[in-house]
Design brief:
7-stranded parallel sheet, 18 helices
Length: about 500
């Protein structure tokens, strides 16, 4: 595996990357970073979840001249959620150099964005419609831009953004570096690459295949409103030593960790909004076993080296099969058996088929446990603890009290009382979880539905390239969050 220190990046950026918890470069990072640092145009075929933000973000940060108060890099993203997520990750990567990053997207007050643009950000991450709006208003100057990145180009094509992107690229100096990332390579994207890129290098990252047969994989079909009770019953029955629960959004992670704590589990969450100190504190507690359940988003869990995880619970099914492989790979390490359980709502069944096709393994269906089964599971765990205590044979301080109890009570009654006292009975304390919409059904949207409204969910000479086969992909829904200010 390639270490970040082997990729020729500066100490300031390296320190920031290591501080984020990244230890080894992913395949796309290992291939892309050196090429990008040589100012080569590049086409990256990569799914979400492969680490492509750092793949283009690290070299971009490296090339920024912080003494120059001008926009030097621009990243075009299909949705506001992705724009925010990318800007947050770039903010962290650039923290060592004090690089200023600004997200620009529709739905946010434009006058506020204009004020922020006057503070000279070095990097802009924006959605096509709002970027074009600022160009037309002349509130954003792009004459000093040396690097342009198109993220999830195929999704921007699906959403009807190609004309907007071409209009934006026409405003950027021709002598620039252009990087295009796309999971698939439809003809319009290939044509754009030929027109706007100069002899691009192609980096393809194949979908990982499952190489961890020691992981037992199950799915449970559960209504959204019943997910949490099913999760707690599974925790009671399975008594995992260390478990990770994956949620789709930051809000979901916060609410889940709070709800689990309310029900008596030792749980904490990690996501992109946590300070580095808090993140490291939570991970230390988890590794030491002080907390039993770690609740995490995909982004927060990326690059973590955690051993001893026995169970992974996908509270929300990931939209991207790559993320699924990444999630469940947290368990079943060092020759041990791990268990991965995925909750799907009835409308999300099509995603299950995509995941199974990627992993080349069928998931076994598991029936959601009942309240009685959860209580039985807790009793079983207590009985095992009692047997272990008996086997340790360090009971002479307690024999006298035991004999006294048995003089007045039936032995089975005494043991039943001990079991009742030690058993964590299933808790039904009411908890509040905001309902997450199920992932969109496959081919549910019509092409005309994807055309740009004011802002949806939020290249300069002829070149030629041979067409290359690219794999299909699915889109990932991201949780919206308040953007981080780019001012340090």
């Amino acid at each position: 595996m390639t270490k970040f220190q082997d990729l020729g990046i500066s100490q300031a950026t390296l320190k920031a990357v290591l501080k984020m918890g990244f230890e080894e470069a992913t395949p796309i990072q290992a291939e892309t970073i050196p090429l990008s640092l040589q100012n080569k145009d590049l086409i990256g075929q990569a799914q979400t979840g492969t680490g492509k933000t750092a793949a283009f973000g690290i070299p971009l940060v490296e090339k920024v001249d912080i003494k120059m108060d001008a926009i030097q890099g621009i990243i075009i993203a299909p949705t506001r959620e992705l724009a925010i997520q990318v800007s947050e990750e770039l903010y962290k990567i650039g923290s060592g150099k004090r690089v200023r990053v600004l997200p620009i997207y529709g739905g946010q007050d434009i006058s506020r964005q204009i004020r922020s643009l006057k503070k000279f950000p070095h990097i802009i991450v924006g959605t096509p419609g709002r970027l074009l709006d600022h160009i037309n208003r002349k509130t954003m100057r792009l004459d000093q831009v040396h690097t342009t990145i198109l993220d999830e180009a195929d999704e921007m094509l699906n959403m009807g953004f190609i004309e907007d992107i071409e209009a934006i690229l026409a405003e950027i100096p021709a002598e620039r570096q252009t990087l295009l990332f796309s999971a698939t390579m439809p003809t319009p994207i290939q044509r754009m690459a030929e027109r706007f890129m100069k002899d691009p290098q192609v980096v393809r990252v194949k979908m990982k295949e499952m190489t961890v047969p020691s992981i037992e994989q199950y799915y449970l079909e559960v209504q959204e409103k019943n997910k949490f009770d099913v999760l707690t019953r599974l925790l009671d029955i399975q008594s995992p030593e260390l478990a990770i629960v994956f949620g789709r959004t930051k809000r979901r992670v916060d609410e889940l960790s709070e709800a689990l704590t309310l029900r008596g589990y030792t749980a904490e969450g990690i996501h992109g909004d946590l300070s580095q100190a808090k993140r490291l504190s939570v991970l230390r507690k988890f590794k030491e076993g002080t907390i039993d359940v770690l609740v995490a988003t995909d982004v927060a869990a990326r690059g973590l080296d955690i051993s001893g995880v026995t169970h992974v619970y996908n509270f929300d099914i990931p939209q991207d099969p790559e993320s699924y492989v990444h999630r469940i790979g947290r368990t079943g390490r060092a020759g041990k058996t791990g268990v991965a359980l995925t909750f799907i709502t009835p409308r999300e069944k099509s995603y299950l088929a995509v995941v199974e096709k990627t992993t080349k393994r069928k998931m076994e269906r598991m029936k959601a446990p009942t309240l009685d089964e959860a209580l039985e599971g807790q009793q079983k765990a207590v009985v095992e603890k009692i047997i272990q205590t008996i086997e340790s044979n360090n009971l002479h301080y307690y024999k006298a009290a035991a004999l006294e109890l048995l003089e007045d009570n039936d032995p089975s009654t005494v043991v039943a009382a001990v079991l009742k006292m030690l058993t964590k009975e299933p808790d039904t304390t009411p908890v509040k979880l905001t309902e997450e919409h199920p992932l969109p059904g496959k081919r549910e949207r019509k092409p005309q539905d994807r055309k740009r409204s004011s802002e949806p969910r939020n290249f300069d000479s002829s070149r030629s390239r041979k067409k290359a086969p690219f794999k299909p992909r699915t889109n990932e829904k991201r949780g919206s969050t308040k953007p981080r200010s780019f001012n340090h």
